[in-house]
């Protein structure tokens, strides 16, 4: 991430974070206060509901008490109800309706002690029907609701009952007021409070407020709900249950306020961010321009160009950095000659080590042949001529290798001569040089012919270095684990392979069953003078890497500790091969 981008992010955060925090705090504060007001309003509404019910219930009891006191003095009612005078029957049947209309009640019913209806305010023909639901189940104290019938259908009333006597006979008078006709909260049409009477999970009646899609309003995040439970008597089912007045305070205003604050918040944040980006770009340009110029000058500095000017008259951090760079280039100019001299000495030392390493590699197969012949002269002299004829090409090949090596070093920087080279033939020859002198586990898996465009001598040097390292690794593992001695092997294989970056290649693999390499060893294995052997020079694999790169190929190693190592060389395949 560049300095300009970091500055842009920092300024953007510094500008927008206070706005975000302030807006969130304001939104939460308003929401909390309005929510508290809505809760208070819901609590007030439930208290008002209870007060209305109590008031209406008291008024209802007063009306019924007045009727109970007046009925014993009504002679016509007495003659019809107590004495059974037929001429007053019509007066008796219509009495409840007339009294209900005059007193403002919604339901009125007079019954005797056995529950027989002697006058009904809604149904004149209910005379003499037994109904014990309302007078028998109404509580003696407290209020209750009742579900009663009318010609238009059933409705709910706040109900009460009273009793009176005529001679030895007792009568009851039951009355009620319709709930939907009561003066709830002054019946304000603009209130956000709705009142619902819920009788069970499926039936509800809206008393105040707009009817919802479903009459049953349940608590949610958009409303505050309170309930007041009262007894309910169902005259049709002759049952007593519990009804609930459900107060719901709609919080749509609060939701709208929150949405408005959110929209304002988005607009403010976007506007603030846009301004912050413009300011950040301007500041970043002003601040980063001298740093960029200084970086461009510093990029030009190397050991061959140490006269880059770093003059400045600035007194800030950029000026101090310029002066530090100027002093650094002055020190580099002073030590440049020393560095070049050290490079020359290092080059000569590396070349000496490389010559020593290559000569040892050239002498190794010759030494192996003579060691083999020496063993045969002692153990099986009769086979000496036969084996000598078989191994004589190895000696000649080693001598030719040393002669070509000497010629190459004589030219100091030899030009590699590439030609059509059979990889499998070189593999078989090189592996054969390692047979018979303690390296009996080297196996060549390279049948047929596979051609690359390369220098045969360089290819052989690559194989000799890789096989020698693999043989040393196997012998080291055998020395540590004597039980597995002789079971390990070195396998040299060639094959065709497809790669994403190089296309068709010839892949040479040298794999061993040695101790393997750690991650740190794999990262340094191709570096000059790095070795894991006590007597190694650290040049073998660095030479391999250089020779492979000269052939426009690649080399890598795959290994895990305890699982051996596999060196993979990819060389470009000859077209038509």
Describe the protein's architecture and organization.
With 577 residues, the chain is α+β, with helices and mostly antiparallel strands. It has two domains: 295 residues, Beta-Lactamase, CATH 3.30.450; 157 residues, Heat Shock Protein 90 (2-Layer Sandwich), CATH 3.30.565. Helices cover 50% and strands 20% of the residues. The chain has a nine-stranded mixed sheet with strand order 2-1-5-4-3-8-9-6-7. Strand 15 and strand 16 form a beta hairpin. Helix 9 runs antiparallel to helix 11. The longest helix is centred in the first third of the chain and has 68 residues. The radius of gyration is 55 Å and the shape is elongated.
Domain unit count: 2
* Elements, N to C (H/E): HHHEEHEEEEEEEHHHEHEEHEEHHEE
Question: How far apart are the termini?
Answer: 49 Å
DSSP helical segment count:
11
Radius of gyration over all CA atoms, rounded: 55 Å
Corresponding CATH superfamily of the largest domain: PAS domain
Q: What general form does the structure show?
A: elongated
* CATH fold node name of the largest domain: Beta-Lactamase
Structural class: alpha+beta
> How much helix, percentage-wise, in residues?
40-55%
Strand order of the largest sheet: 2-1-5-4-3-8-9-6-7
Major sheet, described briefly?
Answer: 9 strands, mixed
